[in-house]
Amino acid sequence: MVKVKIIEQDVFNIADKETRSRGFVVKPIRYNTVKAEKIIDYCASSTMVPKPYVAASMEALSHGIQHFLLNGHSVEIPGLGIFNVTISYKTARTSADAGLEQVKQLNVRFLPCRELKEAIGNAELELEGIYALVGEVPGLPNADGTPGEPQKVYQRISKNSDYVLDDDETDTETGGGNNTGGGTGGNNGDDLVG
């Protein structure tokens, strides 16, 4: 089951990219990143393979993927998908201007397999709540002492009528989407402005 929240944010009109307004968008709730140790524990307990073997296999898989990607191959992991290398580059107008200096960055791209896409596509959704944007507060200072990004403040509203506020349901965005009703995580749509 995938939990989602509906939050108010700035959106723009696809027909007129200069026009912006507020709208309610659906976002998946993202909890903390699951670390390798937890995955190892899960795999060991669900397969009865000893934990050290699972850990060694994960380590070997990681090194194998990296090895083959760095040597020009795409890498398929059954049940997950395919990893491959892509390049961000600047276009050269002439062959005299062409060269390695065109490369901005090497990237890793992941293409999920059909089974993974279908599993996610067929997942049941559970609505956690609807949140209206009620303002911003100053962000925490950065490590260098400069002001941090302002944090958006959301307040949970009733699902039954527009903008009926529940006073005890205010939340502040932390930027990562790890708190319920808070951060929006990444921008998941072409028509959204974060």
Describe the structure.
By secondary structure, this protein is an alpha+beta fold. It has two domains: 2-33 and 123-172, no CATH class; 36-110, Irregular (HU Protein, Chain A), CATH 4.10.520.10. Helices cover 21% and strands 39% of the residues. The strands form two sheets. It has a five-stranded mixed β-sheet, with no helix packed on it. It has a three-stranded antiparallel β-sheet with strand order 3-4-5. A hairpin with an 8-residue loop joins strand 6 and strand 7. Helix 1 crosses helix 2. The chain starts with a strand and ends in a 22-residue tail after the last strand. Residues 160-194 have low confidence and may be disordered.
What's this model, at a glance?
The chain is α+β, with helices and mostly antiparallel strands and 194 residues long. Helix content is 21%, strand content 39%. It folds into two domains: 2-33 and 123-172, no CATH class; 36-110, IHF-like DNA-binding proteins (HU Protein, Chain A, Irregular).
Cα distance spanning the termini:
26 Å
Q: Helix count?
A: 3
- Please state the average pLDDT score: 82
Largest β sheet strand count, sense and barrel closure:
5 strands, mixed
Low-confidence stretches: 160-194
Order of helices and strands: EEHHEEEHEEE
Q: If strands are numbered along the chain, what order do they take across the biggest sheet? A: 2-1-6-7-8
- The proportion of residues in beta strands is 35-45%
E-strand count: 8
Number of structural domains = 2
The dominant shape is extended
Computed CA radius of gyration, to the nearest angstrom: 22 Å
Percentage of residues in helical conformation: 10-25%
